[in-house]
Structure formats: C-alpha cells, structure tokens
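User: Batch of two.

Assistant: Item 1 of 2:
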Amino acid sequence: MSTIPACPQCAMENTYPDGDNYVCPDCAHEWPANAAVSADDADEPVVKDANGNPLADGDAVVLIKDLKVKGSSITLKMGTKVKSIRLVGGDHEVDCKMDAGNFMLKAAYLRKV
C-alpha cells in the first residue's frame, strides 16, 4: 500500500513525489507535500482580516483604509463599521451591505471589531 495520497483534483492514484511537492501526471496538478497532512482542514478555507484574526459569517468589521469604488465616484471611508458580513469564495472574500450599497471586499482591508 502506497503512502502517497491520491490527486485532490482528479482523484487518480498515479501520483509521485517531486521535491517538496506531489505531482499528478494525469491532470498535471501539483500540490505541496505538507498540505497532504492537513487535508481535513482543506474543506473550509480560513479567511483572515488584516491583523490575522479569523473571520466568520455575521462578524462586524471596520475598514482600515479608504477604498475607491471601481466605476463610481463613491469612496468608502476608513473607519466605516460594517455589520453582519458574509464570507464567499473568490478573490473578494467578504460580501456586505453598507449605506452606499452592496459590496464585495477583500479581507486584507478589514479589521475585526
């Protein structure tokens, strides 16, 4: 029985170690060998604020810098408190409602209250 894990992307067992990574020749997916140990935590990605505190649905956060809204003349001001955030996947991890509208924000510009 092999100690090398199956590919997390295509589930094929034809994988091999290559330095610090595992490689799947079937789909060309590479992943770090140390990530295979903590595969149980891979189901829930942890979203962290600017200070490294983990965020959860329903948290209240504060903007740590002024943010210009793309395609608009609106600027979200530093220090604005946002209540009841929702975490979503993708590049902009936080979905929230403010007085100016609904926005998708990056967690790097937020601080947990």
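Item 2 of 2:
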Amino acid sequence: MRRSLLGLLAAAVLLAAAPAPAPAQAIVFRDDRGSEFRFERPPQRIVTMLPSLTETAWVLGVGKRLVGIDRFSDWPPEVTALPRLGGLEDAQIEAIAALKPDLVLASVSSRAMDRLQALGLSVARFKSESHADVRRTMGVVARLLGTPDEGARVWARIEHELAEAAARVPTAWRGRRVYFEIYGGPYAAGTSSFIGETLARLGLTNIAPAELGPFPKLNPEFVVRARPDVIMGAQRPQETLPQRPGWSSLDAVRQRRLCSFGPGDYEMVIHPGPRMGQAAARVADCLLRLEAPER
C-alpha cells in the first residue's frame, strides 16, 4: 500500500510539473482585397456567395457548416436545400445577417458585401479569374476552415485530371483556334481566364488574346474575322448561331464544329473551382466527337 501511495504521489508531481497544453494557433490570413482576418478557431457558420466558393467549401469537407448560399449555387445537390441569399449585386443583407455567420465567402467584384462588413460581419473576398487564383483561394479557404492539407490534395487531383484530359485530345486539334462564348455573348473566355488556361492545356489556341483581359466583350465581327475552328458555349445560344449576321459563313457553324454544353455541364465549365478537371474532360469529350478541319 505504501509503495502504491508513493507511486500516486510521484505521478501527481509529474503531472503538476508537465507543461500546460499549448493553445490552438490562431488562423490569420489576407483575402484578395488585402483585408486581414483572424480566427481563434475555424469558422463554424459559413455563407458562400459564389458557386465556385460553395463547391470549394463542400469539396474541402466542411459542407455541414454551410448555413446559406447564393442563388446560383447548384452543386452538389445537397446544398440546394440551404437558404438562397441573392447574388453579387443583390445580396439579401438582412437575411445573411440573420443567419449570424462566422464568415462570408464572396467575390472581390461584389460591392454589396461592403454593407455586410459595415454590420461587423467577416467577409473574405477572392478573385477567381485564373488557375493561380483558384489554387490560391483553395489553399487559403482550406487553411481557414481548419483543413489545410485538403487544399493541396484537391489541387493535385485537378492537375491530374487536366493532364488526363489533355492526353485524350486528338492530335489533329492541337493548335486549332477556339472561341468560347459566355452566356450567348458578347463576352468571351479570353486567354488569361481560367477557362482560357484550361483550353490552352488542351492544346487549343484562343481567338481572344490575353491583352483583352480574362473575359473581354467582343464585337461579333471580331469573331467572324478570327474564323475559329470550333465554337464552344451554352447549348441554347448555339442553336441560333447561323442567324447572326455573317456567322453562317464560318466553317465552324456550317460544319457544326460546335461544343454545345447542356446546363449542368456548362455551369461546371464556367465555375472556377474544384471541378475544373472534370470540365476539361467534358471539353475533351466534345473534341473527340468532332472531326478536326484540314490544315
């Protein structure tokens, strides 16, 4: 018994002498507008005001923390049951504030978010124009959500899928000119956009040069003069391409070298998030179905 008491006493002394557990390290980061944020623990109530950010949060494994989304978020299907809170310019400020989110993830282009910040809410804003933007956003969001390793893992998977899609594109399509139309025009996905960078990875040449910006507004005559070998975009607008002045002369229109994406695939292709690799696969699928023009 005496030995037992001495053992217990020694254990108590060792416990008393042991250092206290280190406090959890605070999460500190800057968004793409240069605003600094500090969280003592990962946010537990999150609102996303951009489809790509909704998808990113979900893929990073924190879907259960989402309490509200923008009106355009539709993937994965589970998020469609969440409250919809408007869009970039008509965000429902009162409804968002009523949800008492720890963090709102939004686009740098949303001026409506200034009102939320004025109410004292934490609003982190990100750019999503290029692959580098998407990779950086994914890493920052993963870290602030408490899943830092997931950002690198998801990006590695995207890179693998991009490489696989590029390997499937027929050689005859390498270097061919492409016009990717956004929502029926007149805006295009330019060379410097994340869509343009994906098209370049697949070996295509964009008719909208980088100096015009990521999503330039193009005159229809510009497209006619550029004479793209393939035209890509949403399915419904492409049905009316022959009715556009001068477009019936384009070989891509006459010979139906069109990649017409249905609603689900089109939304995936234009969302700069974790499904970019799958989007590249859809483009490769289309090129496999089309006969490349003769050189």
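The first strand starts at residue 27 and ends at 30.
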